[in-house]
Design goal:
Layout: H1 2-7, H2 15-22, H3 26-56, H4 64-75, H5 80-119, H6 126-140, H7 146-173, H8 188-201, H9 205-214, H10 227-250, H11 267-303, H12 309-330, H13 334-364, H14 370-403
Helix pairs in contact: 2-8, 2-10, 3-4, 3-8, 3-9, 3-10, 3-13, 4-5, 4-13, 5-6, 5-11, 5-12, 5-13, 6-11, 6-12, 7-10, 7-11, 8-13, 8-14, 11-12, 13-14
Length: 404
Amino acid sequence: MHLVKGYVGTGVFSMGDALKNSGLIFGPITILLIGMVCLHCCHLLVNSAYLLNTHFKFERVPDYADTAKLSFALVAPDFPALGFVAKLIVNAFLIMAQMGFCACYFVFISWNVRELLKVYKCPLDIHWIIAIVVIPIWLTCLIRTLKLLAKISMLANIILLTSIVIVLYYSFTKPTSHYPAGLMIPSISKFAIFFGQSVYAFEGIGLVLILYNEMSSPELFNETYGVLNIGLHIVTILYLCFGVVTYVQFGDAIKETVTLNLDTKEILGQTVLVLISIGVSFSFSLQLYVAIDIICPKILLWLGPFEYPVLVELWLRTALVITTFVMAEAIPRLQIMLSFVGSFLSCALIVIFPAIIDITTSYSFKKLTKCLLLKDFLIVIFGIIGMLAGTYESLALLANEIGK
């Protein structure tokens, strides 16, 4: 359940919009393909971490960044700096990805709040709403206790699940008023946007090794019918079904998040907007925690000692919230933000890096065969093509948006 909760986030509400960009033939097939590749790459990362752990004999398997560092350090012992560079790159992408997720959360919350305010004849520009939303989010981000954050996150997960159930109920019970053009062959530009949106939804690989370490029987995590396989199969099926159901219900009128398609004249529609805004706000601080956990110790080590280290951490938290706020103000379009973060950052973390780590680790342990090398090479190429195409089209959309 922890794995499923870690993967399912705001991206699920944009799966219908993603299918609008891909159609009902190519879209579902590609979602299944991305899910399979994501699952396989998670296995590659876990296997690499396990092999490195058996070699270096740590008490726990290393995290994502340390796995990259040890893998490159082992394959090139004469160039120890290579391992540090690998760790630096992975950490940089993890930080940027978490910041990107938080910026997406800002935009997601603000559009839902805007829709709710329109019901009560209080229309506000999206930029003003983002500026208002930043205050309560900043206050939640000042919470430093992980146990309290975990409780808040649990509440957020319950709210998120409730919202998903309500949207599905709404989609099944309301008559379809907009029929999808859906069987069309998508253009390359739209398909690239769809790819970024879908990969964004599947980002959660940083959680995999953490959960592996927390299991009382870690050997069950990576088995055929283990936690990883079952969890990601559930996530993939949920994304696919939710996307198809919402797209069939709202057709090409579906918006960047399906919550904006709900009838706000009804209590049910308003309830979802309130719930999802609160739930995502609660999730924000835990998402930011990953970046803080990487950056803060480095600042305290390199620039310290400080007389008031807690105050330094609070200033860091404030700076990160302001950074994500500026990102959201600069790009207040959810589709563009999701696609860019998914294509540029998530694609590297989910697809490209695990395959490269698998190559270097397998080589060090004399397990690198021609078939394995070819398979990992194809995964890297798949990731690079998706990364470049999705990033380019996202930036093109952004340029078009700025030019309006």
